[in-house]
Fold each of these.
Amino acid sequence: MKKLRDIMTTDVEICKPEDNVFEAAVKMKEHDCGAIPICEGKQLMGMITDRDIVIRGVAEKRPNSTQVTEIMTERLLTAEPDMTVDEAAKIMADKQIRRLPVVENNQLVGIVALGDLAVHRTTDEIAGYALSEISESEQEHYYH
């Protein structure tokens, strides 16, 4: 059975706590992604999403110079590299999340996105279920 370490993206673009919202948005544009982990060293502190920027930044009239830590999502649900793809897909479907940070010894080692699951479909179709069930909602996308 495939493990997350087999499919996760390990070259993850991050922001530092002192980075601002503008810098995060530019990284999202450059790397064509909608979420960037916030790390102090390798320690995962939170995640900033394009939705965080819109809801907690723009809609609350915060300047682009606002630090990412002021609007990031702090309560994160994370996975470990030895978790199976099926387990991750089930968590993502149940919690309606699109990206799952992978941590080992409290350090960010990768990230798994819905696209990764689509490429590595499982025999019981949990990944397909996750892909079909996850949609934008009013809830936060990450949980602790």
Amino acid sequence: MRHLKVERYDAVVLVRLHRPQVLNALSADLLAELLDTVRPLDDDPEVGCVVLTGSERAFAAGADIREMAGKSAAEMLAEDYFGAWEEFADLRVPKVAAVNGVALGGGCELAMMCDLVIAGQSARFGQPEVKLGVIPGIGGTQRLTRLVGRAKAMDLILTGRTMDADEALTAGLVSRVVPDDRVLPEALAAAATVASHGRLAVRAARDCVDRALETGLRDGVRYERRAFHGLFATRDQREGMTAFLEKRAPRFTGR
């Protein structure tokens, strides 16, 4: 692989974006490599979580401007440019973003596709596309608004300004802020914790939380309740509750 580095830590897979010469700008080739890497993990019973990270300088500085600058509107429409990123967002394996440095434009959108975002104190986030005469195109106007609210999203998207990690935490964009040198250890530890739980329950929980952003309260609660009921058909539910009553650690199998 040219643009990624992949490491395995038991049930956790670490994926590093590796285009240092362009601060991990998101190109079509990088996306293809990323999907080829993570797509099989969705069905791998030995993988419980994925950690996505970049470098100390940049998680990802945005989409690859050089790659798209010369394209016409017809070409963008014909290619459904950026459309394939939704396949990454739709993967059911839990994803943790470990963010150091800048996460701008597509980099911020990529972080928002993950389930947890752990940021270093010097990390910066933003959607500066308006400065290039365009708008966010990988879900930024939609996910950012749902995560931080209309007022903050309008502020960031219309001015193109960036926000630091503390503001991002307060706004609800990131899950935790830690010292820069602790970002990856914290992300790996969080991923290991997620991976230690029942795979079916974790995926059901992800689905329900995502559904909360897409539906009304009554329908969301009904969806949650049905998912809760369905988990009583799994071995993991029986093992988890039996282990609790027997005062021992559960041994989940993902079934």
